[in-house]
Amino acid sequence: MLNSSVLVLNRSFLPVHVTSVRRAFSLIFQEVARAVNENYETFDFEAWMRLPVQAEDAIGTPRGRIRVPRVIALSGFDRVPRRSVRYSRLNVLARDKFTCQYCGERPHRSLLNLDHVVPRALGGKTTWENVVCSCVECNRRKGGRTPEQAKLRLRRHPERPHWMPLFNLGRQAGQQEAWRPFLGVVDSGAKSASPGGD
User: Fold this and answer.
1) In the chain, where the domains are located
2) Which residue stretches of the chain are H helix?
3) Is the pTM for the entire model greater than 0.70?
4) CATH number attached to the domain at 83-162+187-198
5) How far apart are alpha carbons 96 and 99 in whole angstroms?
6) Among 38, 59, 85, 106, which residue has the fewest nearby CB atoms (within 10 Å)?
């Protein structure tokens, strides 16, 4: 429970990070952040301790059981950090919306892989601009050829994404109902991909 995820908002209630329950409690206790409830009310540590506890979402402390915060807001942080998006399999898949960039299908994630547009055997690099999400079938059909050689058409030219590095928020929101109201500002069109075949 202490290692589960908590959404971190800036002072303007924009999502900026994801942290653990353990770290969230520390930030609230130090008065660096305030817990946010389902009614968008904020609470310092003492006020949060006094809230009614739901058995399935609480932890024990020497002072009694306390609700686990699922959203916190930083007290003195206004800006949204601008960071580059790290290249990874998951980020490539997210950039491409878990959709094959050749046929447009959205199979189960286990049936997706990464494809080098210009194959490595032909000098293609493993970069944002040369790797796309593809289904197993299209990847097999393309093989070690370029899309033109395999008579396949890219649905969109791959680019380095410019969205905030909160790629996993949309998927985690399915598990964290409390996050949903705050995620409208996150670019749901963000793409993500992962290295794989050619």
Assistant:
1) 5-74, 83-162+187-198
2) 21-29, 45-49, 89-95, 136-142, 169-173
3) no
4) 1.10.30
5) 6
6) 38
